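Duplicate of #3305? Posting structure anyway:
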């Protein structure tokens, strides 16, 4: 089998090894030196400061002619609406919260995922461009994201809305779902959490976990969470939703690779949610890196197909 599907509380690792393409991408990422972005708190502070002075564009890129997009505003944020160009009625609605450790803007890989999802599943995708740290902090970002999702659920019905997030956006998605339960009393149809960052302390990962991650390093990731926390403690559920309450949350579809320093926290997330009675489906891939479902690999395509099947 190319992948393994596990239902919590049991977690079984697949025997399948990473594809050649996945291994080549790992080597390419190492050669680019991207891991150095997270080598220290000082490096992250410098990068976040530079990005704040010269914010990168968030306009959609890498979208095919199979979709259309328009820019609206909500909560003072730019919010993009990506829809299938097909005249057929939209079947579902998805809110996508992008990753980037709360300091990096949405990028082409995210847009390609959104465009493919919209076209393949006839889904209307809403993409909020939330403010980045240190300007944007959890105390403001989480409630604002919650209100955007609430308004969508009020308009189209909660049963027609899925909340999707990758990496930092996965953590924000989980915190948003907890906010919705506490302040609105309802949930979207489902949560799709792609290699989510759910605990800013990152105390569960071992030195071996850190060494296996080709994209991230521990000091910088902790600093990114600290910047996003602002005046809150990094353990606050807005920043680290793994510390929040899981009762009554929407069913979760979770993806994780064993070569991701978030992996131990994601395992804990799945067990905690299942113990609280939340339906959990988790796909674990042996030897794969952070955000593998968004990569142009056989394993990434399989993960995206699973997401599309759940949406439809």
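Output from current build:
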């Amino acid at each position: 089998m190319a992948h393994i599907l596990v239902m919590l509380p049991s977690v079984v690792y697949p025997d399948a090894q990473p594809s050649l393409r996945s291994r080549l991408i790992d080597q390419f990422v190492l050669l680019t030196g991207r891991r150095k972005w997270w080598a220290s708190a000082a490096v992250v502070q410098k990068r976040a400061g530079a990005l704040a002075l010269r914010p990168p564009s968030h306009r959609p890129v890498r979208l095919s002619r199979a979709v259309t997009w328009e820019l609206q505003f909500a909560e003072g944020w730019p919010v993009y609406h990506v829809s299938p160009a097909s005249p057929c009625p939209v079947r579902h609605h998805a809110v996508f919260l992008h990753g980037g450790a709360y300091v990096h803007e949405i990028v082409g890989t995210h847009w390609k995922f959104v465009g493919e999802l919209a076209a393949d599943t006839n889904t209307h995708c809403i993409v909020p461009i939330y403010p980045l740290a240190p300007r944007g902090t959890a105390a403001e970002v989480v409630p604002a994201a919650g209100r955007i999702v609430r308004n969508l659920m009020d308009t189209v019905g909660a049963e027609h809305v899925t909340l999707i997030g990758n990496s930092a956006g996965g953590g924000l998605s989980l915190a948003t779902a907890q906010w919705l339960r506490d302040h609105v009393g309802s949930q979207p149809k489902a949560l799709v959490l792609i290699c989510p960052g759910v605990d800013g302390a990152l105390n569960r990962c071992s030195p071996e976990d850190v060494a296996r991650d080709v994209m991230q390093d521990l000091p910088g990731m902790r600093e990114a969470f600290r910047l996003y926390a602002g005046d809150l403690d990094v353990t606050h559920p807005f920043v680290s939703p793994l510390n929040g309450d899981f009762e009554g949350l929407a069913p979760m579809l979770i993806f994780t690779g064993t070569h991701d320093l978030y992996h131990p926290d994601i395992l804990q997330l799945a067990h905690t949610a299942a113990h609280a009675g939340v339906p959990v489906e988790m796909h674990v891939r042996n030897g794969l890196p952070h955000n593998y479902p968004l990569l142009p690999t056989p394993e990434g395509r399989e993960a995206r197909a699973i997401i599309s099947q759940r949406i439809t």
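Confirmed duplicate; merging threads. Residues 36-311 form a domain with the Rossmann fold fold (CATH 3.40.50.1820). Confidence is low (pLDDT under 50) at residues 1-7, 9-13.
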